[in-house]
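Students often ask why inverse folding is considered easier than folding. One informal answer: many sequences map to the same fold, so there is more than one right answer. In these notes we will look at a single instance of the problem. The structure comes first.
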């Protein structure tokens, strides 16, 4: 056993994935999960009627920036 290793791990990591519990960086299509999750939550918000509330707030902010409101 190596004297420098105090965490109790035995090493032997032959795949170069680090100490992340066998998980390396996300795969080639990891971004797809984020995209799909965003689309699902956007659809849920639109179904609940949140889109109209957000649109109304956006219009008010634009009017305040221009100086109309």
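Output (designed amino acids):
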């Amino acid at each position: 056993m190596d004297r420098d290793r105090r965490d109790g791990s035995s090493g032997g990591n032959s795949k170069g994935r680090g100490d992340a519990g066998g998980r390396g960086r996300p795969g080639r299509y990891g971004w797809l999960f984020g995209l799909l999750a965003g689309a699902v939550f956007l659809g849920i918000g639109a179904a609940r009627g949140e889109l109209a509330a957000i649109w109304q707030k956006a219009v008010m902010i634009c009017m305040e920036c221009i100086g109309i409101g």
